[in-house]
Amino acid sequence: MALVSKLPSSSSSSSLTQFRKPLNPSLKPANSIHFTRTSCSASPFTEKHSVERYQRDKWVFKNQLDQNPPENHSNFSTRDYEIALQLPELKKLLEVLREKREKGGDDGSGKGGPGNVFLVGTGPGDPELLTLKALKVIQSADLLLYDRLVSNDVLDLVRPDARLLYVGKTAGYHSRTQEEIHELLLSFAEVGANVVRLKGGDPLVFGRGGEEMDFLQQQGIQVKVIPGITAASGIAAELGVPLTHRGVANSVRFLTGHSRKGGADPLFVAENAADPDSTLVVYMGLSTLPSLILKLIHHGLPPDTPAAAVERGTTPQQRIVLAELKDLGDKIASEQLVSPTLIFIGRVVALSPLWPQSQASSSSSSKKDSHLMGHV
């Protein structure tokens, strides 16, 4: 089995064996972390070491969390420590599913085949933006592997008896590597499970869904993709910004702010992207935005180009910064926006009713109408 053979085994090394001991105050693994208690008012998404995350995934930490609820101690785990704690329950579930497959399900024919993997886009955060098909699959799933940017409100739609497993990534902390996620999906599909892979936005737009699909199909696993509203569309609608508009923007380009090798520089797209007749939408671009702005202006994009940054778009915790391109970085820093923040650059941003000049124009028009009405 892929999971058993390729993921670290709790008995494969002395360093992991010790992690199977019950948690206690004297057990402080290297690089141990602190639990943080969050609430929906603090973040609409799954934060990496929140108590809520471990309560949601309690089944896979069953023995340790039953004996030592996380709120009762300050140290929990490193990434490897977490994986070591999860392995017993993951293996147990695999065995149950394998036995069921070998018996051939209810008819006892012994002809059970591999399961399917569903790559499901959950949209930018607002559960009302889910597609009907996504909701149907989510509510019928037995096992769901979910990312950080699947909102808590969406996860609340999962059946109470379904099993959830967090595989999210944030800067500096990957609960699972991409290769480990591949192996988890493969392992459960091989024993006949229908696995749902939940991703924020659309699974095939900067979601690495294409990599997962390619890997699984090469292993003979059927993959079904259920699209979601990508953040660019959902958040633009929230702002009242048309991504394209006749006479203003004749194209739209989605960019990733991440460099594949990390660092402060975005991918080398600034020269081609500096088109005043196009709308730019930058995903995952907070850390590299200052460099991107300089490159765009250097390659000819006007410094006064309207721009917007939206943190946690479409959720109750949404925050918006509007500024000209040359000032956007400073305003984001001043407001201390955090990930996830989506960035819009282009003249269409000025069409938003939230753009300062639009509000001033609207206020002026209202005063004028009121004045005219007074003379009727």
From TrEMBL:
Feature: compositional bias, Basic and acidic residues: 366-376
Region feature Disordered, mapped onto this chain: 1-30, 357-376
Keyword Ribosomal protein found: no
Keyword annotations from UniProtKB, A to Z: Methyltransferase, Porphyrin biosynthesis, S-adenosyl-L-methionine, Transferase
The EC number(s) this enzyme carries: 2.1.1.107
Residue span(s) of domain Tetrapyrrole methylase: 117-328
Stored InterPro entries: 4pyrrol_Mease, 4pyrrol_Methylase_sf, 4pyrrole_Mease_sub1, 4pyrrole_Mease_sub2, CobA/CysG_C, Siro_Cobalamin_biosynth, Uropor_MeTrfase_CS
EC top class named in words: transferase
Any one Gene Ontology cellular component term annotated for this protein: chloroplast
A molecular function (GO) term: uroporphyrin-III C-methyltransferase activity
Pfam families for the chain: TP_methylase
GO biological process: methylation; positive regulation of chlorophyll biosynthetic process; regulation of nitrate assimilation; regulation of sulfate assimilation; response to light stimulus; siroheme biosynthetic process
Similarity comment text for this entry: Belongs to the precorrin methyltransferase family.
PANTHER family, A to Z: S-ADENOSYL-L-METHIONINE-DEPENDENT UROPORPHYRINOGEN III METHYLTRANSFERASE, CHLOROPLASTIC, SIROHEME SYNTHASE-RELATED
Name of protein: uroporphyrinogen-III C-methyltransferase
Originating species: Lactuca sativa
